[in-house]
Description:
This protein is α/β, with parallel strands linked by helices. The protein has 2 domains: 112 residues, Aspartate Aminotransferase, domain 1; 236 residues, Type I PLP-dependent aspartate aminotransferase-like (Major domain) (Aspartate Aminotransferase, domain 2, 3-Layer(aba) Sandwich). The chain has 14 helices and 12 strands. Helix 3 packs parallel to helix 11 and helix 12 runs parallel beside helix 14. The N and C termini lie far apart (43 Å). The model has no long low-confidence stretch (mean pLDDT 96). The site of pyridoxal-5'-phosphate has 14 residues, from helix 4.
Amino acid sequence: MPTFESAFLAIQAGLEQSGHWRILPTHEPATCYADFSHNDYLGFAQDAELVEASHASAQRYGMGATGSRLLSGNLPPHLALENLIAQSKGTQAALTFQSGYQANATVLAALLDKKVLGTTPLVFSDRLNHASLHHACQLMGVREIRYQHNNLTHLRSLLEKYSNDPSPKFIVTETVFGMDGDMIDMPAFAALADTFDAFLYLDEAHATGIIGPDGYGLSSGWINQRGLAMGTFSKALGVSGAYIACSQVVYNYLVNRCQGFIYTTALSPAIVGAVHAAWSRLPTLTDMRTRLLGKAHYLRQHLHALGFNTGTSNTHIIPLIVGHTTLAFHLQAWLQQHRLLTSIIRPPTVPPHTARVRIALSATHQDAHIDALIAALTTWRAP
Ligand SMILES: Cc1ncc(COP(=O)(O)O)c(C=O)c1O
C-alpha cells in the first residue's frame, strides 16, 4: 500500500518523464512588449467604466452576496443581469454561476441525471470539448460518445448508429473552440439536434463578447426548449463568472436540482455590477470586433506564409501547432526573449502530438504588436 506522499510523487515522476509536469508560471505582463497569453479579448479587465460599475454595485449592495441564491443571496443585481442576458440571447430565462467550470460541471451533470431521465443518457461530445464538460459526464457515470472535432458528418453517423436506442440524447459542443479557434456551423448543429431529438448543450465561453449578433455568441436565436447556451464572464467580458441561457422549464429545474447553483454563495454584487456594464456595452462594439477578426486574418496569412500550422482557426484564437511539447517550449521561450508573451497548451489539454503555442488576439493589440510577433516568428528556427 503506497503512502499518500509516495503515490503523489509517483505521479510527479511519470509526468516529469513524459514532459507533462506542470508548474505555475509567473505572469509578468508589465515587463513585456505585447501579451498574447490572456483571454481578455476586449481589454475589459482594466476598463475604468467596469471598475466604476463594480464599485457602485458594491457600495449599494455590499461586497458579498451573503448567502446562496435560494437563501439570502438573491439580490436585485442578479435578477437584472439575468433578465438582460435572457433578452439578449432570445431565451425565456438565464441563470448566473460563479465560474464557467462550475456551470458546466454542475449544470450538465444535473441534466444528465439518470434518476430524473429514467435511463442513462447518451452524450455525443466533440473530442476537443473543455475539461469541465467531460467532468460532468464522469461525475454522472455517463459514457461519452466522442465525435471527431467539429465533424458534422461523423456526428451524424454516430447519431444514426444509435437512432434506435430509446435513451435521451445530448449533443455537447463549444461554439468557438478555446484551444483551436474554430467555430461550429450553428444552423447545422441545430438541425441535427432537431432531427435526432437531441438536447443541444452549447459552451459559448470563447464566443461571448466576440462572435455572433451583437457579440452575444453564435447561439442567439437558436436555443429552444431542448437546449441551452452557457457562456463565461471571465474571457471577453474581463471579469469572472458564467451564465446559462435557457427555457423557463430548464431554469426552474436547475434552480431545484443543480447542486453547483443551490449549494454555493451567489456571485458578489461587485462582480455582477461589472458584468452588467460589460454585457450592456457589447452591442456598441461591432467595429471593434470586426477589426479584431481582421487582425486575426492578417496574422494567420503571415503565419501560413512562414509555414506555421494554425489548424482550423478562423477566429481571434490562433494556435501554432508544433507537435512535441519541448518544441512548443522552445518556441514560447524564443517569443519571450522578444518580450512577447504566449501560452503553451499541451497534452492532455490537447490531443497527443499537438502541443502548441496559443496566440489570443485582443482588441487592445495594435498593428505594431502583431508585426513584432510576425518578425519574431520569422527568425525562429526549430532546434
Ligand atoms: C470552453 C470553456 N468552457 C469553460 C471554461 C471555464 O470557464 P471559467 O474560466 O470561467 O471557469 C473555459 C475556460 O478555460 C473554457 O475555455
